[in-house]
Every structure is written in C-alpha cells, then in structure tokens.
Amino acid sequence: MAELIKVGMAELKVARHPAILTTLGLGSCIGIALYDSRTKNIGLVHIMLPSSSIATAGMNRAKFADTGIQDLVQEMVRIGSDIRNIVAKIAGGAQMFAFATQNETMKIGQRNAEASRAVLASLNIPLVAEDTGGNYGRTIELSSEDGTLKVKTIGFGIKYL
Questions:
Q1: Is 63 tagged catalytic?
Q2: 3-152 to CATH, choices 3.30.1330.200, 3.40.50.1820, 3.40.50.300, 3.30.360.10
Q3: How confident is the model at residue 115 (pLDDT cuts 50, 70, 90)?
Q4: Average pLDDT of the residues in 23-37
Q5: Which of 13, 27, 60, 124 is 20 to 30 A from 7 in CA distance terms?
Q6: Does the keyword Hydrolase apply (predicted)?
C-alpha cells in the first residue's frame, strides 16, 4: 500500500516508490508533479506565484514557480533520479474570481501556468500533460506506480493525466 503524503501550499516534497503525493485546493496555484519512470521517484511542489523576483531574502522558495521547480528537481536528483528521466505534469492555474478590469497582474493563475511551463522548458523537462485554467479548484494525487496524476474537481469529476 502506497503512503499518502500531503504537500501543503508553498511546499515541496519528494518520495520513493511506493508513494502518493497529494495537494489540496489548487485555485490559482499550480501543482507541478515530476515523475522518473526509471526509479519511480515522484515530486510535487504547490506554487503560489510565478516569480521570486519580488521576494525578500529568506522567503519560502517553494512559493514561486522559478525557484520551487528548480528546488524540486534538485530534490529528485538527491534521491536518485536522473534529470533526463524526469517528466512533468501540471494542474491548477484557475481564474477563481472575476475582475472588472482585464489587468494582466490579476491573472495570477494564467501567469503561474505560463511561468511553470517556461521553467520546465528551461530545464529541458518535458511537460507531458496539464489541466490548467478554468474557474474551479482542483485537488491532485501523483502516484509513483506509473506517474498518473489524478485531478479531482467539484462539479467536473475526476481526470487522470
């Protein structure tokens, strides 16, 4: 039986097989799930913002797409993964509230998704599946068995990526 490990907001965790990493309540936040098919190692980070450029020293690096994904990859390598065997799946990035203005800074979910894709591309990690956007929250579970990402939504059912 795989251990279920919770990943909180602005947190990252890695695990060796058998395990399931889960994070709850992804709204505009993004869950970036990494899987190494050779070792069956998994990793998950729950990012809140696209860039750490606004951060002060000592800020939580897992809060941001740029630093959180880099740290997650380093943790995967630390437990025995080779970056060349890692693939990614992302979920979240919803626009949870309607704004009267079309101000880009308010589109945090969309900006988080774009930043996550860009960081993964810069690290040459293939993004093999995603479930982003919309205006609803998601809960995700990443299985070390085969890298399946289960995406649960209220009103939209369950998807497997």
A1: no
A2: 3.30.1330.200
A3: very high
A4: 97
A5: 124
A6: yes
